[in-house]
Every structure is written in C-alpha cells, then in structure tokens.
Amino acid sequence: MTAGTPQLVVHRDKELMAQAAAARLITRIVDAQAARGTASVVLTGGRNGNALLAAIAASPARDAVDWARLDLWWGDERFVPAADPDRNAVQARGELLDRVPLDPARVHVMPASDGVHGSDVEAAAAAYAEELAKAAAPGARVRVPAFDVLLLGVGPDTHVASLFPEHPGIRETERTVVGVRGAPKPPPTRISLTLPAIRAAREVWLLAAGEDKADAVALALAGPGELQAPASGARGTGRTLWLLDRAAAARIPAQLYPPASA
Ligand SMILES: O=C(O)[C@H](O)[C@@H](O)[C@H](O)[C@H](O)COP(=O)(O)O
C-alpha cells in the first residue's frame, strides 16, 4: 500500500467514531511530542470535527498530551466576526480549547472579518499564508509546516475545508491559502487551505458520518478527480485515513475496504 492509498476505518456509529478518532489523535500527538518535542494539528469545522474535540475533552487520556507544546492551525474558517458562534475557532474553543492549557501563541486562528483586514478576505488569506510560511521548515517546497495530522470533515458534495467542487479554490496550485466567495455552504465567505497545503501534511484524516454522506464517500473514493470531488484530492505525505461510520460507508464498493471494525 503506498502513502497515497487511502486507508478506511469503519465504526459502528458516529459516537464511537468520534471516540476512536479522539483516542487515535491523542496517541498521535503524544507520539509526535515524544519523537520531536512538539506536534502540530490542523483542525476542521463541522459537526464531526467538533464531536472529535468534545470526545478528547471527555477523555482522561487527554492529560497525556503536553498541550503547551502543540501548534493548532485551521483548515478553513467562516469569514465572520471573531466572536460569531459560526466561527470554527469559536466552536473549537467551546468543545475543547478553552479546557486545556494551550500556549495562546501556538493557537493559529484564521483572521476574522472584523480584524485588521476588514472585509478583504484575500488580504486575510494572504496574512494566514504568511503565518504558515514563517512556521515552515527551511527549504520546504510548500511554505507550510509539516503538520502531523490534518483533519477534514467531508461535505455531502465531497467538499473538504472550504474547497468546493468546481469552485476556483480547488484549482489553486500555487497559494497555500485562498479567500472563498459564494460558497454553497453558508456562510458564503470563507478562508481555506488549498490542496497543495493540505498535501504537505504527514497524515490527512477525513471524517464522515451519517447516511447523507454515503454518496459523497463512495464518489470520492472512486476517484473522479479533485475538481469534481475535492475530498479525493486530499492526501497526506505519509498516510491518508478515512474515518467513517457504517452509514457513511454504506455505498463503498466492498472490494475497496477490509472488513469493518466496530
Ligand atoms: O467550515 C466548515 O463548514 C467545514 O470545515 C466544512 O468543510 C465541514 O468540515 C464539512 O462541511 C463537514 O461538516 P459536518 O462534519 O458538519 O458534516
């Protein structure tokens, strides 16, 4: 199996999926910190990403993480005021980030629409690209850190982060962050990492649960191409992992994955 080949893990239901993903993420962070002294994780918006964070908050094993030596980034953000409950960062704080001793300087939120860039979403995206570039390893081809784990929720249209089918952002090959206007999922204005930035991650984990994701998961794994199915273009340099519940996995051709785990 090559690094680009997705691995599928299918759980009984979305609650178990969130708990197992939380256990997996805690372990991955602890391992990265043991190996290199630090870890970096890219968070996703959406219900499944939030459920994963809530499961970490509820896990006694969360105390195994050295929270002060963890960098957090975002894969995408809704471009609304900083305190808006629609913000992915606000939701992440509510589920987990306010309950663990993170170093605030290592929590790299994407700019908000009431920040220094005002309503200029392109300037805001460029500022985030600059922040990522400053944290990149010297000589890195794509100017972002080598994220240990990059989380992505998968939308019912196969979008990931705020990269939607046939939208300009999914075509981006140079920039690491783009401003998005007219997104089909509200709110319409967003900031997103691009596929080149996503593919710089060591591990990309895609999360999908529920019957309404079954067609999207089957389509993305059939590999029609990233313009039509952005999720099919999301892969890590070392590993690409799809974390699913049975309902979301229901339409995957049986030959594509080993027997379900429970
Ligand atoms: O800002 C966002 O809305 C997201 O980052 C988006 O890409 C999300 O992850 C998917 O739409 C899946 O969302 P659910 O997990 O809620 O289905």
Automatic annotation (TrEMBL):
CDD domains to which the protein is assigned, alphabetical: 6PGL
Matching SUPFAM superfamilies: NagB/RpiA/CoA transferase-like
UniProt enzyme class: hydrolase
GO biological process, one term: carbohydrate metabolic process
Keywords from the named record: Hydrolase
Domain Glucosamine/galactosamine-6-phosphate isomerase: 13-242
EC number(s) stated in the UniProt entry for this protein: 3.1.1.31
Domain of life: Bacteria
UniProt GO MF annotations: 6-phosphogluconolactonase activity
Pathway terms, separated by semicolons: Carbohydrate degradation; pentose phosphate pathway; D-ribulose 5-phosphate from D-glucose 6-phosphate (oxidative stage): step 2/3
Reactions listed under catalytic activity: 6-phospho-D-glucono-1,5-lactone + H2O = 6-phospho-D-gluconate + H(+)
Known function: Hydrolysis of 6-phosphogluconolactone to 6-phosphogluconate.
Family from the record: Belongs to the glucosamine/galactosamine-6-phosphate isomerase family. 6-phosphogluconolactonase subfamily.
Protein name, per record: 6-phosphogluconolactonase
